Amino acid sequence: MTRPAFLSDNEAGTDPRILAALVAANEGLALPYGADDLSAQARALCCEVFEREVFVFPTPTGTAANGLSLAALTPPYGAILCHEAAHILTSEAGAAEFFTSGARLIALPGAEGRFSAETLRAALESIAADGVRQPRPAAISLTQASESGTVYTLAETREIAGIAHGAGLRVHMDGARFANALVHLGCPPAEATWKAGVDILSFGLTKNGGMNTDAIIVFDAGIAAELNHRCKRAGLAQSKMRFASAQILASLAGGLWLDNARRANANAQRLAGALAGCAGATLAQPVEANEIFVCLPEPVLAALAGAGIVLRPWPGPQPGLCRLVTSFADDEALIARFLAVVAPYSSQPVTTPLTS
Amino acid sequence: MTRPAFLSDNEAGTDPRILAALVAANEGLALPYGADDLSAQARALCCEVFEREVFVFPTPTGTAANGLSLAALTPPYGAILCHEAAHILTSEAGAAEFFTSGARLIALPGAEGRFSAETLRAALESIAADGVRQPRPAAISLTQASESGTVYTLAETREIAGIAHGAGLRVHMDGARFANALVHLGCPPAEATWKAGVDILSFGLTKNGGMNTDAIIVFDAGIAAELNHRCKRAGLAQSKMRFASAQILASLAGGLWLDNARRANANAQRLAGALAGCAGATLAQPVEANEIFVCLPEPVLAALAGAGIVLRPWPGPQPGLCRLVTSFADDEALIARFLAVVAPYSSQPVTTPLTS
Amino acid sequence: MTRPAFLSDNEAGTDPRILAALVAANEGLALPYGADDLSAQARALCCEVFEREVFVFPTPTGTAANGLSLAALTPPYGAILCHEAAHILTSEAGAAEFFTSGARLIALPGAEGRFSAETLRAALESIAADGVRQPRPAAISLTQASESGTVYTLAETREIAGIAHGAGLRVHMDGARFANALVHLGCPPAEATWKAGVDILSFGLTKNGGMNTDAIIVFDAGIAAELNHRCKRAGLAQSKMRFASAQILASLAGGLWLDNARRANANAQRLAGALAGCAGATLAQPVEANEIFVCLPEPVLAALAGAGIVLRPWPGPQPGLCRLVTSFADDEALIARFLAVVAPYSSQPVTTPLTS
Amino acid sequence: MTRPAFLSDNEAGTDPRILAALVAANEGLALPYGADDLSAQARALCCEVFEREVFVFPTPTGTAANGLSLAALTPPYGAILCHEAAHILTSEAGAAEFFTSGARLIALPGAEGRFSAETLRAALESIAADGVRQPRPAAISLTQASESGTVYTLAETREIAGIAHGAGLRVHMDGARFANALVHLGCPPAEATWKAGVDILSFGLTKNGGMNTDAIIVFDAGIAAELNHRCKRAGLAQSKMRFASAQILASLAGGLWLDNARRANANAQRLAGALAGCAGATLAQPVEANEIFVCLPEPVLAALAGAGIVLRPWPGPQPGLCRLVTSFADDEALIARFLAVVAPYSSQPVTTPLTS
After folding, report:
1. The domain made up of A16-256 is a member of CATH 3.55.50.30
2. Complex ipTM, two decimals?
3. Where are the alpha helices (DSSP H) in C212-255?
4. pLDDT on residue B348
5. What fold is seen in the domain C16-255?
6. Residue C347 pLDDT class (50, 70, 90 cuts)
7. Does D234 touch chain C (CB under 8 A)?
8. Among C229, C231, C238, C241, which would you mutate to test the B interface (most chain B Cβ atoms within 10 Å of its Cβ)?
9. pTM, two decimal places
10. Sheet containing C55-59, strands listed edge to edge, beginning at the edge strand earlier in sequence
């Protein structure tokens, strides 16, 4: 069976510069559990990158980062509001319920993978009206970039976070693809997070060139103190922490993480631009990060298949819907081949950004 | 401040051969979540090593391996019996309670870090007599090697496991230092585990040369099916699984794990042999794996300090108690220096194995 | 403010015959925690009523009965499928998540408060296709009578339970209004429960004349053994159990529970029959138990209000939707007054049963 | 088999005056879930009795009161320090772990069923020194009266609570026999609770004349808001709340609860006074509330048995240890018979209070 092309940003290995940093980190002995020098450097660099004191908790997966973050914001009798397509709801096997000891995820609808401020406000009012019969809303979770490959604008984030805070909730951002969202927004990390009202960030590194490390970025000392315990209790405090920290350092130093995200996003624009020009093709979602959801007509799919390029069908009501995910490690030869196959079907190539 | 010598087997980096395997594993794309080739090979090699079908769940820490394992054996209303010094009870911040959703750890006393079959039997009878007022005993956990650096004999393991099974409990082995125990026992892994009644093993690799991977080894398909869900739900299913699998493969292939453990154990014998011969020195525990608990007289401590060798004081009733942990990565020059300092105090060097 | 009429079947006090039984039960000393004579009699009578060995766990609320029951069927990493309007999902503040330690409730749509066999089958297939990313379905919960005042037929229950069992799930019935459903079905309790595939029943007594006791009826000895522990651990094992058992005994003895349910259902038919004949009135749901959901035109509402009868508005898309709940303790004078007010608006009184 | 005399204060039925209040409460309809008049009156009376605003949560058992209280004070990653004989640790099947979602109970030693301020201080220091490897201490629980039938003095309570608060912990009092402790102390409820530093009280009523209601008394509005959710979520919010409130009202009104406790305590003094004078008899604990732990010589046990009075053997190292529990419902004829049997063995009856 031919493996689908652009299957996932989990397929790539480790960025060579991050791998080199891991090899370098292997020298000599080091104190365990984050008392080593590299971990101190990683913390300092995160503070610099986010332009304030932050607390950093490396985690082996994004699910762990999400679960711990939500647990720090939500009591067991609480509720978390998120988009109905949020990864924490659809794809993490109940991790949110596990880490929070039984809080409930409440799904909010919304076009293009985002829920609106108005939808949030209405949901909170409806739940409040039902009183003690409902789990108490304690947090919201924004997926940035969203599961549809779209990005909340800064204004949207600020308005949503403002409503949440006004109602006594705190704000989690699931940033498994945070770098991709950030380069789309074109703003500093601080603007996209704590300055916009985000209380805690699941900071994705693995999809963007890391080997096996994401991180929680915490903007509050009290939450950080609590996470110290929760992280250990969840089996997520690594003894040889230097190897997680080395990945964070190498990723952030010199902006490698942003370069990688720019490349992934640019590749998505190239592919989507070609596809959008095909007669009968429809982009199911605006392309703002590194994911493309597109409905392709049979001839295009056949031509691609003829060139050995199979795409991943994606569940949904639209016929012929496929998902493509680009990454820092995309094969230029594959992209060139893809574009060449598609070109004949593309009467008018789209060159402007394909965003909303 | 001088860093203590022989502080912990968490200080070392990655064994160079395992690091090389990680670098090699970085080539090309690979399916995520364990669907890659290296993961298949790692599973196959584990089956070979344990001489039967086993199921393998890589975890980023030993605490995660213990927590998941115990959760698979114990319902939330259950209890787990373990030694009063067991790591799961004393050092994991309540991970057992977290993963099991609130089961209770029941501490059993026992000399040299081990509890006896008789102690287990008496405890089970006492709990059963109290009926529904007690959490229902569902599992035991054996730490092998123990927190005192000692090793349950095969006969002890078999008898204890037999009592557990007879009472409807299942048997977990916390093998953070399983390799060290195994080379002390001098038997195949199968003899030390499932053939002796162990149902699930936390298989330590990180302390023994790995970078950031331990593993759960499951001997039962039903438990494995359950762990598939639990592992994902706990944020422990890594996307780029090939890097965990590469560590397991490199560690097991060619017996690297046993070689490393042999070296660590041999170093412990060398150090302990020298120390045991010192007038006024007392080994607080038999030295059977890679840990030494020793009470040293002031002159010896002073002489070591004079040579820049500070030891880690260990809490306990004995004055001058220190812990030394050896590893695959011990510095031969440091060992030589250590032995040279101690020699003048050691009237009669002990050369026979220092075990019970 | 005028209290709404027919507000809830929780408003009534205790049936006088059950109250008398409580007074009688107060004589002398009795062994605690269910070792008393009345508790033995209650268990025996339940076995007789259900025509087989059953295990009985009195609980102080229906929510406790539901939560414990679901926990006995569902592991923490599991999922429970139920109707989107099920009380366990909409009105119990996350009790299902609490008792199960974090399982997830999955909402199924369905007209008239019931989900269909086909809906269940499709949902199970869809979840199974998504593999380990989803909580593992472990149980379904049928609300009987449903939150819409309707009743699953025996054939529906059997078909749904068959699909659940075929997929490895077990079947819970939330019978907060089980007696009302049963008299509608006109069959013995055994037919409506274990013979139809129900594994565990939340048996509502409080709404039907009890003071403060519902019960879990278990049809399986293994589940019962587990519930012994869970019940104690949840603070639900009452010391002076004789007072719970006395309520169960008095309720079941001589069929008082069925008489009370018949009276409540008959009252619902009388009220609904009158309302359904009013021009502009619409029954939003078939009336099969003791609840009426009806949209009433303004003149009828005004006439009732003029007679001091205010109805409880019910949230929903239909304008003027109200809910009326009848009970064993309905005031005949109030009913007569109600019917008299409505009569002029009711051109053609409906006399046939108002069921689907 | 002869039932032991003075077996438990759970054997008695309901105090006739409380039963009468239940019968009276049955009149008419009432709003459910605590919105009824009796519940408002019960809350008001509790405020009066405790001389400040308090929040009242009726519970069906003391275990439920303890579990909810501890959950309100302790996060899932926390620890609760209590006496090694505390009911929450020894007799509630893991309810503390259940309600807190996995916090740990840490056992403190102490003579006569009480731990000392010094023991608490040392334990907190030891745990703090171990950092993140330990669950974070969040609460202490004082059992008042203790499981040994003794009572913390006001000075002891204040000192212990002061240490707890100083270390950032909060204070729970398990008052299953609070009334018995209070009449021993001879002070107002306020002095024994919030004025001494107690943050939340499990207020026992069932053993002291109630039918099936204890209560949580909360001294803090924030905790109360949280308990509103937790109580509902645990299936402990009763629909026909008036019947719980009626018991609270009848118990507190006119001091019935204190009269009942005085009678129980006085009976304990009478029995213990007679036993303490017997040659060869030893009180194992001071008798300060309504429990007697006594080692009796064989002739006395035989004489009692000859009169049909069997005592309950109690586990412990002392030969012949028995426990007797007195209550408001003790049979005067039985007491007279008991005293008559014992008198011949009692050379010098003890008439002064048998307390420390």
Report:
1. no
2. 0.95
3. 221-233, 242-252
4. 62
5. Aspartate Aminotransferase; domain 2 (3.40.640)
6. confident
7. yes
8. C229
9. 0.96
10. C55-59, C214-218, C200-203, C170-175, C136-143, C78-83, C104-108
